[in-house]
Amino acid sequence: MNISEVARRTDLPPKTIRYYEEIGLIRPARDANGYRAFADSDVHKLAFLGRARALGFSIEDCRTLLALYEDDARASADVKRVAQDHLDRIEEKLAQLRSMRDTLTHLVHECAGDNRPDCPILQDLARD
Amino acid sequence: MNISEVARRTDLPPKTIRYYEEIGLIRPARDANGYRAFADSDVHKLAFLGRARALGFSIEDCRTLLALYEDDARASADVKRVAQDHLDRIEEKLAQLRSMRDTLTHLVHECAGDNRPDCPILQDLARD
DNA sequence: ATAGGGGTTCCAGTCACGGGAAGGTCAAGG
DNA sequence: CCTTGACCTTCCCGTGACTGGAACCCCTAT
Question: Is A72 near chain B, with CB under 8 Å?
């Protein structure tokens, strides 16, 4: 299976697939002409990676998760820890973004948005 | 005023201050010895930039906001548009993160987190 | 023979800095 | 006067996870 077919099936750009090989997440075989020859197992791994990335896991988390997935002797506790840590980071990020949003919402609401120069947004940014 | 004093007052790292000069956000004078000589106006601008960055504005947004701040003939509508666009991006990001969080929370809750290999998190990532 | 649509590698750029090296400057102490 | 140590300077590399583009190879159909 060639890369564009795999891209279609996994909904990952060819560039991303090559990158994942470069950093050792997958190791597709090669045809005599040098083209990558993807097996079903490669496609499966890429789909796994795509879903993990869609959940916001870092590449290194994905590497860990994939290793756990392929380890029959894994403990689900190890998987859960990775997921829980990631979830904690997401909650932090959410809190930070909510804080920004609340401040911005307030400022935007206060601003007349007309032709005059007076602007509470700039006043806030320039406060002493 | 030397850079470390400015860093202290603005709560920005010296590296960041040098970077902001490099990309043209500020233009501090220089002493005869080559040291940057910051004026109060530079400190003021840096504080402005620090607050804008803390609200998540990109560097380019900051450049725009600073230009508007220094333009007496600005229209508050221009400021408001920058802020509203940024707010829209934040709302998008929030929705995305909430979606990730909801999925992850569910999966983490389902996972036993013990010594056994069975794991709904991996099952979900590997679903066909 | 050629045209096109694959594939390949490699290099550069993104964003907003941070780390660290190599070296100049300044004030204080011996 | 010399040294020490804390400043300051520039310069280059690395970050994460790709994306764009150049230059080139391969395969099939006309």
Answer: yes
